């Protein structure tokens, strides 16, 4: 009735969740006639050995991503240390200094007293 | 200069230069990235052969699923055959995405397999007449496959690398499943040991052939291209040498012999010397003239064609559900 | 079933030979059904209509063979013999599966020129799936506690099988004219055998008497209700009275197809049953 080229299987991207604390992770893609069949085939195709508590399948056409050119805009300058803990490396040293100053002052007072 | 009069070509050259820069930098290429036609074609050639080999590879072992000697072995080999089909699925999906811009799909790949245009690995053209063959296939053929696949994990094409990562994890289970069968036979009765020895003897030439002919100093243009694009960087001979390192001693440790009196390791050169298999025969086998080539292809082709109505049914738009009064 | 007393262990069961005889009979029925149908599924390996489908189908055959193995092990504890001997060394007349289970997938050998019928596979797995669901639900109330517990575990895996085959059933019923015609033809074939599935064999009275499982009429009634719904929601007319095969599989009468299956399944094991494989 239909040649294979007119009527195609749909590509579904498969995501799965390992445990309630983890997010969904992309696994792979499969060909299925509809989302129901995709859901029923997903675990046995990609998670035969891994734990899995939930599955999503998404028609690839419904996924909006960046083009290769747009992806280059994700690169950023290495000047945002203020966003990360490593940008606050001096804090611990300062606390240590304050603690030491306090303790030596206390020791001096004790001796003096 | 023709570049100046042909802006398209100039653009392509610029893209190619950038692409090669990325390859040299060790960047990974994704399916929607621009890529030169010969990169795409090399990938299609390599991965489609790999993919259909997995699917054809399910057939010799499938013969042993019902016959496997115990319930546990039946289950294990069924899981293994399932993995082979699963690997075929992963690899075909990767090729399908590469083929899509060319207007081709999975059906075209299978038609190419049936017509003989698309070849599959020499090992899957061979007979597996005993249970020990099932063990040797899982131990040594999968062992050989782990070597080539692990070496390809670094491939520049990211979707292939992701598929290979999944595949390699499962191949390790396959090799252990094979080792378990082989060890049981090696520790078993004289008849079991003989069955194992016969299978090793039978499979040895095919295992040597698995890696392809040695380069002998001249590397084919095909391989040069794969190396330039970092699709696959080891030569056939390098991979075969890794195989010898890993398995020859293990075969001896089981008290088994190899059908090659000349095989030896040269410490000074760091190289295994061995008797070459019949490479003319190799060419014949891969062309589809192996002992089981026709039968296995027919099996795959018949089942695919006879199930066309099922795929048509899967793809047909569903009729209205809850129809009143169906017909039986 | 509260009037029955529960049996907690194999040891306890073995103190009552009549109980054990009835229990073994029932266990062989359930184990052999799953074992032989898993074998039929294994013949399909690599040959299913779609690659993703092949992979998923294999999992279900593994689950079924796994269930059979659990039941053979239970039989081993009850003194019936080693599980692997039960799977490989019995003659066909010791098998208690229903005839519909042993019917071939089509014509031809699984390794050479098989002409298998996917519509028959869907019809058989769907209708057996409904039956197995009901049998497992009934077994969850069995007086033999290890069996009731095992049935509960199996139900979890089997639930997936039921969803899966229903999806296919619906698909074939509601897609092309060709698919629907093939499904109908396959259902007709299955229908002529299906009545035997509910039978409990010669030990029926004591199986039910000991509270091992609900009776034949009870099970078949539940199956009919579930199947009627499935047919109605897919626009398939109820085919009327079902048939039973000439041979009585539950009493050890089988077709040559089972003899062939058993000889394939035991080919290697029989080379040396005393050896370790």
From TrEMBL, chain A:
| InterPro entries from the UniProt entry | PaaB (IPR009359), PaaB_sf (IPR038693)
Checking Pfam families in the record gives: PaaB
**Which superkingdom?**
Bacteria
Q: What is this protein called?
A: 1,2-phenylacetyl-CoA epoxidase subunit B
Q: Which organism is it from?
A: Paenibacillus profundus
Q: Which gene encodes it?
A: paaB
Automatic annotation (TrEMBL), chain B:
Which of UniProt's keywords are assigned here?
Answer: Oxidoreductase
- SUPFAM superfamilies associated with the record: Ferritin-like
- Pfam families reported in the protein's UniProt record: PaaA_PaaC
What are the recorded GO MF terms, alphabetically? Answer: phenylacetyl-CoA 1,2-epoxidase activity
Q: What is this protein called?
A: 1,2-phenylacetyl-CoA epoxidase subunit A
Which class of enzymes does this protein belong to?
A: oxidoreductase
Instruction: Name the InterPro entries on file.
Output: Aromatic_CoA_ox/epox (IPR052703), Ferritin-like (IPR012347), Ferritin-like_SF (IPR009078), PaaA (IPR011881), PaaA_PaaC (IPR007814)
Say yes or no: keyword Oxidoreductase present: yes
Organism per entry: Paenibacillus profundus
Q: What is its EC number?
A: 1.14.13.149
Automatic annotation (TrEMBL), chain C:
Q: What is this protein called?
A: Phenylacetate-CoA oxygenase subunit PaaC
Per UniProt, the keywords (alphabetical) are: Oxidoreductase
* UniProt-listed NCBIfam families: PA_CoA_Oxy3
Q: Which GO terms describe its molecular function?
A: phenylacetyl-CoA 1,2-epoxidase activity
The EC code for this enzyme is: 1.14.13.149
Give the source lineage, highest ranks first. Bacteria, Bacillati, Bacillota, Bacilli, Bacillales
What organism does this protein naturally occur in? Paenibacillus profundus
PANTHER family reported in the protein's UniProt record: 1,2-PHENYLACETYL-COA EPOXIDASE, SUBUNIT C (PTHR30458:SF0), PHENYLACETIC ACID DEGRADATION PROTEIN PAA (PTHR30458)
Name of the gene this protein is made from: paaC
Q: Name one Pfam family in it.
A: PaaA_PaaC
Gene3D superfamilies, A to Z: 1.20.1260.10
